Sequence to fold (262 residues):
Amino acid sequence: MSDPAGEVVITQRQGPVLTVTMNRPKVLNVLDEAMADALVAAFSGLAADQTIRAVILAGAGRSFMAGGDLARFQADLPGAPQTATLLIDRFHTLMRLIKAMPQPVIAAVQGPVAGGGVGLAFACDVVVAAEGASFLSAYTKLGTSPDGGTTWTLTQLLGPRRALEFVLLNEAVSADTALQLGLVNRVVPIGELMEAARAMAEKLARGSMGAQGASKTLVQAATHGSFDAQLELEKKAFVANAGTADFSEGINAFFARRPPEF
Fold:
């Protein structure tokens, strides 16, 4: 576990599960360059580390993340475009790492989540939300448009009309409504958030890393490819997995009527 004293991101490993916690609770974990760099550092290299089989992304304190650090912009409004470029480049590097890694990433979300926090949470593969959590775009209230893949993710999850409504009207969406809309996977009591996220991560960690990574890639491809193209991708992935030790174990476990040990 990283030393939490002064650390803007804390990592803690429990067996095959890595928990990455954003640690700026006094400012609701808003993103600045230091946190963005620390998050990129925490996620870099994970794709190649097969000993880590699931990742939880969490936020310390009462909010998962309340967006970007607006004080950075207020301090130098004429230089806002340059500041935005620095922050967004780092932030988007993080998004690409999360999407590309084969391990499932679970967002454990609580409190008011806004701006980039929304994009970050919904970019994860699974979202477990605490009761009382809320999601707000907030970008257009500030006179700008979303980043962090928010428009892509929302459009895929909600469709273009509801995605645009979410972005333009800036009305907070409750955890329960987010569950109904398919934006989150589970809603749990606030005191059970990390326990629920860990239970899910541990279950996923017992699965086949190759099969789960291929499934993650396939689902992402399905959002923009044709049906015929998807059939070919599925065939390629299945055939590749059929030659692995995990597949042999899965088949043997099925006929032995026992849980597989991947």
Observations:
- The chain has two domains: 9-205, 209-256.
- The first strand starts at residue 9 and ends at 14.
